[in-house]
Amino acid sequence: xTRLLIYEPSFQRIQAQLAVHGDGLVPVLMDAAGQLTxxxxxxxxxxxxxxxxxxxAEVFESPASRAFMVAVLKAPGLKWAQSAAAGxxxxxxxxxxAKGARLTISHGQAVGxxxxxxxxxxxxxQNGPARRAAQAQHAWRRPACREILGSSWLIVGFGAIGKxxxxxxxxxxxxIIGVRRTPGPDPLAEAIVSPAGLVGRLPESxxxxxxxxxxxxxxxxxxATFFAAMKQGSVLVNVGRGALVDxxxxxxxxxxxxxQHAVLDVFETEPLPADSAFWAHPQxxxxxxxxxxxxxxxxxxxxxxLDNLERFINHHPLLNEADPKDxxxx
Length: 330
Hints:
The chain has two domains: 2-108 and 296-328, Rossmann fold (3-Layer(aba) Sandwich); 110-286, Rossmann fold. The protein has 14 helices and 14 strands. It has helices spanning 8-13, 15-18, 45-48, 57-60, 65-74, 91-98, 110-125, 128-136, 160-171, 198-201, 224-229, 247-256, 297-313, 324-328, and strands at 2-7, 25-30, 36-38, 41-43, 52-55, 80-83, 102-104, 152-156, 175-179, 191-193, 207-210, 235-238, 261-264, 284-286.
């Protein structure tokens, strides 16, 4: 029998799918007020004793988010937690791993994030701001544009998001170099290099995309040395974590034209402070950590959870399981 900690609105939404598990699944429901019930009876966090928990966007963004995480961390026999996040750099995931629970993450955002990267690069290459300005001024002008065809893209972090970017950029005729820790070829890249070979590839790269997880080895990965090696006129896109970039070094590098433009969806401090230089910088496109927020994300996350729940109950391998050593190293 599996006791599942789940946010009550989420349970109501997928109750029919959960019913297939019959008496083998006992829902431990948390409502918006942070109260826990089992079979309609109120229980304390310590007595709820879930084996599994679904940490989805609905509960993350609800008034019950803190109470839900407290219940997760107080669960003495927690064996598995499914997260809706792609990363696991938040300290709470380290606490979950420290309990000995397995953590699975989601790639539901990958589709939207890959689309976002292409949209940001295309807008810069197609001189979108100048075109929109010409329209607003009723001016018949033809701003200069660049093509993706023949450009070289360095994608740092070649997992679900990085591969999604590669697939789209290749369709436009780009050459792809992927950066990841595990060696070996990949059909979506002309070459795969290790993190040690990253800087050596920067001088040839027209577009550099950061979608690696944040950890001790990647914090401020894009620093002054990194930017000094970048190609003049190149574009930097960061959809990973804000702390992958030394923001002071980036501002200095933009003044030198390498990169020429930065598309930034994530920042070291979020929300981005109102007085940040990035807001009004003419060479920066700013969005509010929203690259993966698309119409299909929630359903993909739900489908993954239901798949992994069935696997957990039947003692089958889980999808997208994070390595505990990586989680604990944060």
